[in-house]
Amino acid sequence: MQRRDFIKHSLLTGLGLSLAHPILALDSFPAKASRLCILHTNDMHSRIEAFPNDGSRNAGQGGMTKLASLIKKIRIEEDNILLLDSGDFFQGTPYFNVYGGELELKLMSEMGYDASTLGNHEFDNGLEGIANQLEHAKFDILSSNYDFSETILKGAFKPYKVFHKSGLKIGVFALGIKLEGLVGAKNYGNTKYLDPASTAQEMIQELQKKKCDLIICLSHLGYSSDVRLAEQISGIDLILGGHSHTFLDEPNLLKNAEGHQTIINQVGTAALRLGKIDFEFSKNQQTSFASARNLKVY
Amino acid sequence: MRNILQKIISSSFSLALVFFVACSPQLGHQFTGGFIANDLEIMADPALTEMVSPYKAKMEAEMSTIIGQSTKALTRNRGESLLGNFVADLQRAYAEQEFGISIDISIINNGGMRNDLPEGNITLGNIYELSPFDNYLVILELTAHDVQKLAEFMAARKNMAVSGMEIIGEGNQVQSFKVNGQALDSNKVYLLAINDYLANGGDNMDFLTDLPVMENTDLLLRDMLIQMIKAKTARGEKLDAQIEGRQKYN
Fold first, then answer.
1. Is the CB of B8 less than 8 angstroms away from the CB of A250?
2. SUPFAM superfamilies per the record (chain B) (predicted)?
């Protein structure tokens, strides 16, 4: 696979290294290399505004209104941005209890999110609670492994989406966590849960058929499950995780037994961090992983 | 290949440094666009703040709605506390009313109560601060042996509030205890009102995880508090609690 070749030639330009190696094999980047900037969040949990300034641990930090400022700044600098979220944007502040998620989805739409997925807390007001709020999301909510065909959410979510950015094709699919035991049974009704690993296999095949240059999985399975997925399954380039509220200092670059490399990242909760992962693609669309930073939102 | 380069460098650098990298010579030829100064302090975006403002005003108005009156400040403490007794009693009464059964014991973890209730007006916001977590009411079935373990756990950790038990402890040991004034009955099934966090082994209560579940509800403890306080107010009652010697540790 071209893509796997590439990761062998991967070139990282993190700050420490770039200072240590001021000329980083520039010739590996043809002049027309295109650049893709993935920005991502997870588990924002209705954190509309920063935590109250009351001396508590995250006082004055995080929240969507600050996150939006950071995203706007990056949009000035970067042309090719995909802004993604891995679920649990609902529940956590009274904004959700009072408005049912309307404001969360409106703000995410205003920030220009390209896609998100369903976390377990999206089910907190039942399937109706999701259906009633969907009109406020001006972006795709993807779900590959919940079968809603026998519920009121039938047809509401695409299993994947292919984004076109400057001639690049980026395939995004999304895996949710098993709801049984985690969410009250009447809140998910007849939703059928499909095995994440075999669903991932199908999605990868489909997205490879569509000749995607990059395959991204939005996962709400939790960090340890993401690691297991990357060990089991080859073909995902990037897993943007959630659910476990894991604050990774840096993404995990995992090489599985078949030699496939998957980047796994997760940025805590409450919009306290924004993940930024930059890819470089050469003319023949071989990617080159450039850098990753988990930016603090304060 | 330079393996070291495959290590991803990330995080903990401020935005200013990110843009420094973006504009540093080694990547310059790949970039268009200029340097963006960053003041390190990220301010809230004005457009979003404006979108939020009507929601915020309405929500704050709703959160300041007075739903009851308290005769005194109900405060938290290690072991037995005013707030703990109040909440544990309320949870027990609510479970009995909801399921039409007699609950023997009701417990809540002190750590699950995140703020005290003040004397005087009790607002909806006070209850959200007291109970921000989405914990659900669960009813478990305990044998006398399980109740014994529960008493030992509480005496050792002093991290629970209880209704329906009187425990006397010395150090970290139970000296004696009763359930609703009675000694343990080895033939009885005791019903315990608790939240899903503890029932699933939270706060090291793993001895609860295999117990038979009588009711696994989607009734939020916060909604329970709000409903029960409103009902009290409707009856002309105020919130109150006493330290009664439910947990005496020497």
1. yes
2. 5'-nucleotidase (syn. UDP-sugar hydrolase), C-terminal domain
